[in-house]
Structure formats: C-alpha cells, structure tokens
Design goal:
- With 363 residues, this protein is mainly α.
- The chain contains 14 helices and no strands.
- The protein has helices at 2-42, 50-60, 72-106, 119-133, 142-162, 170-194, 198-207, 221-236, 238-244, 248-253, 258-280, 286-298, 302-326, 335-362.
C-alpha cells in the first residue's frame, strides 16, 4: 500500500510540472512568433525600426500609446505591403504544420506531410487548371475549390495505392506519394506548355515554387477561416488521433471507427491544404519538420502537439520569408525553394533514423 501511495503521489506531482512546462513552451513559442512577425514587418528594402512597427500597428488598431513619428510611406509599407504578406506566412505555416501533424497520425508514418504525399501537387494541378482554363463555376472561391478537390483526390489515390493487405509501410507510402506527385506535376507542366498565354505560364510557374507576395487583406479571410476550422476540429479530435498511435486494432477496440474517422480527417486536411496552396502555392516540408521538432518539446500528446506545431510553423515560415526576400535583395527567392533546402536534409535524416529504429527492432 505504501509503494502504491508513493507512486500515485509521484504521478500527481508530475502532472502540474508537465502542465507548467507546456504552458511555458506555448508562451515561448508565442513570443517567438511575435518577434518573427515584428521582424517581417520591419525588414526589407526600407527598414522600419521595431518600435515604429508596433506604433504603426497599434495606432491602426485604435491605440495611441505613442505619438506618431513615422511617415505616411512607412505606414503604407507596414500595413498594406508587408502586413498581409506576414500574416499569410503565419497562417500558411501554422496550417501546414497542423496538417502534417494530423497526417502523420492518420497514416502512422513519420514521413507523412502534404508535399510528400502528393496533396500539394494535386492542389496545384486543380488551382492551375482554373487559372489556365479561366473557370469560375464557384465564383471567387473557384481556385480554392479546385485546389481542395485536387488535394483530396491525390490523398485518396496515394492512400489506396500504398495500402496492401490492410497495412501501409513507410517505404510504400513514400513511393506512392512520389509516383502520384510525379504524374500530377507532369500534367501540370503539360498545361503550362500548351497554354497560349506565355505571360500567364510564367506567372503560374513562379507560383508553383511557393511564395507570399502579391497578397492583399481582401484575400486573407479564406486561408484564415480554413486554419481556424482545421485547428478547431483537430483539437476536438486530438484524443482520437492519440488512439491511432496505438495502432488500428487497438483504436477499434477502444471504440473508434477507424475507416470513417480517416475519411473525415482526409476531407478536412485536404480542404485546409487546398485553400493554403491556392493562396501561397505549394510550400513543402513545413508539415514534415515542425511536428517532429515540436514533439521533442511537448511530447506526443496531440492536445499539446497541435497548438505548439501551429505556433512553430507560423514562426518558421515567417522567418523563412524574411530570409527569402532579403538574402539576395533586391532579387527574391521563392520561399518554397528555401523550405525545400531546409526540408530535404531533414527528410533524409528522418529516413535514416527510421531505418536505424527498424534495424534495432529486428535485431
């Protein structure tokens, strides 16, 4: 009895410490995001001091805590040029990180993410089809609707191809994703080559590399809404994502309808991916790296991983965009190229780590 009481007391004492550590991590990630967004508004061809950035932003929100000392030109740069771009970077980074977290749990594969599983390629093909053919069946959301349909179709095709005998291996999933993405990218390139408008083809080609430029406040509502919907639903379903980590059979034993749950979640992550790709282009590896980095900080419980991944992903993409538009100024590197340069080595490291784990388990 004494040993049991001691063990129970130890667990009771550990829980508050874990909650305090998680709260401290969220505070640190929030501060990091605020710093990255401030830098995103401050740095560029025209440098605006961080104090002025906060003064301009708070003044625009109606708080006059400091006397305006900035020019009208600087206010326009911060609010109308850099503001929408930084906010889109935060929304896109958060959304991709959350989607990557969910996909890794849904298919029980540490290498899963929208870019590697072909979802981004499917969304790109859908969006480019709307641009090239000029379709507007769904009005102002036609681009996002086509991207959503393409992402969902690609995910379903990859999952069906990789699943054999009721099981999915990491290698089979990655190979299926690469194969489907290659076919979809070939179709996309064919569309670009056969289009009559050369300027349109160049614009679309630049968009397929991923970028945050050219965004306005009027176009931010849809990505923001998709992000809020995705995070809200996934936070509610976080316990079910935790169940999947134990395996399909264990999750089914605990009362989860795995097939129906996966189908619903695939629709949700395809919707979020499609909207984000339509807004910023296909930006790879954010959804692969951030979930793994965050799990090192907060553990594997999705109730903690999801909000932390959202904050970390937002900070990472905003910071990547700062580097992309300043490192070769006045030229600008597509942010998707920069994330690929970071994500490629990370992907190789994950594959080697996964192979070592399997070899150790076999031994």
């Amino acid at each position: 009895m004494t040993a049991l009481a001691t063990d129970a007391g130890h667990r009771t004492a550990v829980k508050p410490r874990r909650r305090a550590a998680f709260a401290a991590t969220l505070v640190a990630l929030t501060a990091l995001l605020a710093a990255c967004m401030t830098a995103g508004l401050a740095f560029g061809s025209v440098h605006v001091p961080p104090a002025q950035v906060w003064g301009i932003v708070t003044h625009a929100l109606g708080a006059d805590w400091m006397e305006p000392t900035w020019t009208r030109a600087r206010e326009t740069i911060v609010l109308d040029v850099r503001g929408p771009r930084v906010l889109l970077g935060a929304v896109t980074g958060a959304g991709l990180a959350v989607v990557g977290t969910a996909l890794q749990a849904l298919v029980r594969n540490p290498l899963a993410e929208p870019y590697l599983l072909g979802a981004s390629s499917g969304a790109s093909l859908g969006a480019v089809s709307v641009i090239v053919f000029g379709s507007s069946f769904f009005g102002t959301v036609s681009l996002s609707a086509a991207a959503f349909a393409g992402a969902l179709g690609a995910l379903v095709l990859v999952y069906a191809t990789a699943r054999t005998g009721g099981r999915i291996t990491s290698m089979r999933l990655v190979l299926a994703g690469v194969a489907v993405a290659s076919v979809l990218n070939a179709l996309l390139n064919m569309l670009l080559l056969t289009t009559d408008n050369g300027n349109e083809a160049r614009t679309v080609l630049a968009w397929t590399m991923g970028g945050l430029g050219g965004v306005s406040w009027a176009s931010l509502w849809l990505p923001g809404l998709a992000l809020l919907l995705g995070i809200a639903v996934l936070m509610v379903q976080a316990p079910n994502l935790n169940l999947l980590l134990a395996g399909e059979e264990a999750a089914a034993t605990m009362g989860l309808d795995v097939a129906r749950f996966r189908a619903r979640m695939f629709v949700l992550v395809s919707l979020v991916t499609g909207v984000l790709v339509a807004a910023a282009g296909p930006i790879g590896f954010v959804g692969l790296m951030l979930p793994h980095i965050v799990r090192l900080l907060v553990g594997g419980d999705h109730r903690r991983v999801l909000p932390a991944a959202a904050l970390g992903g937002a900070s990472f993409l905003v910071l990547s965009d700062i580097v992309a538009r300043t490192v070769t100024a006045p030229e600008e590197i597509p942010v998707g190229v920069l994330t690929a340069l970071c994500g490629g080595p990370f992907f190789l490291w994950l594959m080697r780590r996964d192979a070592r784990k399997k070899a150790g388990g076999t031994a």
